[in-house]
């Protein structure tokens, strides 16, 4: 970038930062999961079955459906406040299936800590929560009992419980090529895994980071806190090219 453009960008950013935005080079990331998925399509990847773990109100699945409209979606969500919305989504689209449950490493009934639209089986380090008992299944058991088709991609945004979910999905992971996970660089939940633990667990199973789609920083000091990361399996061939351009 030449000096004129650099100065111009600096001036613009000094103005628009008051609105909470900034101007960056279009080649820089992150650009969000939709842009990453569009990039996958450009590489010839077509996802046919997508599991959305921690589906909330289904908005992530609907946004992803714009990129992969022909895929089948299985939405997993335990909270009753989202039930009607997800039931309506499933009733209105034969390619969407809703399963009301949480996922973990073992079956049972566990207490979910809820706060301001977020929920986790782990206790928060920053705020008080309300507790709610919900049924928990393993993904491997659910896939078998519900005869679900094997996933092309598993998305999980379950507030620090992603690793436990993965531990209950050992068989399912053997046929899955992509994982879209929220990972933490700072321990937001008591006992929650750091990003390195998840990266190590997945590397042992052939998954590696393909793209960092978004990130958040702690308001206290700007420290990197969480990232949405897309992992791809070695068998996809996406890591075979070593050239720069």
TrEMBL record:
InterPro entries: FkbM_Methyltransferase, FkbM_mtfrase, SAM-dependent_MTases_sf. Coiled coil: none annotated. It holds the Pfam family Methyltransf_21. One of its GO terms (molecular function) is O-methyltransferase activity. Residues 52-208 form the Methyltransferase FkbM domain. It comes from the Bacteria. This is Methyltransferase FkbM domain-containing protein. It comes from Coraliomargarita sinensis. The lineage of its organism: Bacteria, Pseudomonadati, Verrucomicrobiota, Opitutia, Puniceicoccales.
């Amino acid at each position: 970038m030449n000096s004129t453009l650099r100065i111009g960008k600096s001036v613009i950013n000094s103005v628009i930062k008051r609105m909470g935005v900034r101007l960056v080079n279009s080649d820089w990331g992150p650009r969000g999961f939709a842009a990453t998925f569009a990039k996958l399509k450009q590489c010839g990847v077509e996802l046919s079955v997508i599991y959305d773990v921690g589906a909330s109100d289904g908005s992530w699945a609907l946004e992803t459906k714009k990129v992969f409209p022909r895929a089948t979606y299985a939405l997993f969500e335990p909270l009753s406040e989202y039930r009607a919305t997800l039931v309506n989504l499933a009733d209105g689209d034969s390619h969407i299936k809703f399963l009301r449950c949480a996922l973990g490493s073992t079956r049972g009934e566990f207490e979910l800590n809820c706060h301001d639209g977020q929920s986790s089986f782990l206790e928060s380090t920053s705020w008080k929560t309300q507790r709610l008992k919900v049924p928990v299944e393993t993904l491997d058991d659910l896939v078998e009992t519900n005869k679900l088709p094997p996933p092309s991609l598993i998305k999980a945004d379950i507030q620090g419980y992603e690793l436990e979910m993965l531990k209950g999905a050992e068989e399912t992971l053997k046929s899955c090529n992509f994982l879209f996970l929220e990972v933490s660089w700072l321990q937001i939940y008591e006992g929650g895994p750091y990003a390195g633990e998840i990266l190590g667990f997945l590397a042992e199973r052939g998954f590696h980071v393909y793209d960092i789609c978004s990130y958040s920083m702690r308001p206290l000091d700007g420290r990197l806190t969480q990232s949405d990361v897309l992992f791809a399996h070695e068998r996809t061939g996406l890591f075979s090219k070593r050239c720069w351009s």
